[in-house]
Amino acid sequence: MRFLARILGLGAAASALLWFSASPAVGDPPLARALEDVTALDKPTISYHARAVDDPYIEEIRLVDLDGENDRVWMRGTREVGLSGAPKWSLDGKRAAAVAIDSIKQIYAPYILDLETGKEKSLYDPLPRDLVFIHLNWSPDGRWLAMAGTARTGHNSDIYKLRVDTGMLVRLTHKPSASNWSPNWSPDGKKIAFDAKTEDLYRDIYTIDAADGKNRVKLTNLPLSSWPAVWSPDGKWIAFHSYLPEAPVSGTPDYAEMYVMRPDGSNVQRLTFNDTGDFAKCWSPDSKWIVYSHYSRQADGGRLGGLYRMHIETKEIRLIKQGIEAISATWVLAGKSRFLSVDPAGKKKAQWGTLKEAGGSPNNQTSQDKGE
Q1: What are φ and ψ of residue 5, in 5° steps?
Q2: Tens digits of per-residue pLDDT, 224-279?
Q3: Is 245 exposed, middle or buried, given 0-12, 13-18 or 19+ CB atoms closer than 10 A?
Q4: Which phi-psi region, left, alpha or beta, contains residue 68 (left: φ > 0; alpha: ψ -120 to 50)?
Q5: Cβ(189)–Cβ(146) under 8 Å?
Q6: How far is C-alpha 329 from the chain's CA centre?
Q7: Could you tell me if 41 and 341 are in contact, meaning their C-beta atoms sit under 8 angstroms apart?
Q8: Predicted structure pTM score
């Protein structure tokens, strides 16, 4: 089950919510305790999922500054209770969604952590027990979580959305054999992009209407699998990775390259040409940078991991941190971390435009950070 959890992790709200679950149900695996107040962050910060250095059977959520400094643990699981992927941050920076996994009891319990109060709320109670729910992703208005509802074998899944204040669950796709994974909401809230298995057993990226799952449109048509879809905050691009034709098996990490395309599937552009492994993960809040994981093959047959970022216009690449296997990297949308970044020259800090509370889309106008 830990292997399954690791593979599947690959991944304006109202000020107050009426929580439908006041506390975790009896038997829910507890969510790991947060070790840092991320609302106090004053630097651009990336979170990622990794195995603990001192114990490969323990999973952690780690934080690292955009310049690669101050790599530290934010959440640490146990051998009994793990974590599925990195947390997903609501656009208002007030909440994080994460999944705790009891690998013995085979319970996957989604939680919402209120970052301002530190209180956690389980979303497990209203979910059907024949599925596990992973790949969480917030709607722009913070009212819904899109997720993949996956059979316990890990082979069949559909896309659902869960209303976080009432527990209402809506099924959006009805092709479980296609293994629909990794939903990602469009910034305007109208579409959900996801990846699914096609007739040739490879994966392609699709969109559906977020309201009811209608109007399923296939966007990619590359030789091997393309996934997952990661929408830029300004809505102009979808980033993803696709495997090279020479890959021994579609899904071999060493043979992936990073791409972007327009939301209608047009203007597909390959961004990396390393012939090794590059995985699109997340965007900076102003849609200028893509943070991604890179794996290079070593002479001894092993892989060396690293976390990088690329400027979408200039194609400049900057190393964040080498020597880490960063799964499900996400930009921390909390504190000033969602407003600050380093410009391509690395000489000054610039402040992202304020996120609109209603729609979640960024105002692209920027201003100098005055330390406010």
Answers
A1: -60, -40
A2: 889 899 999 999 999 999 987 766 655 555 678 999 999 999 999 999 987 678 88
A3: exposed
A4: left
A5: no
A6: 6
A7: no
A8: 0.84
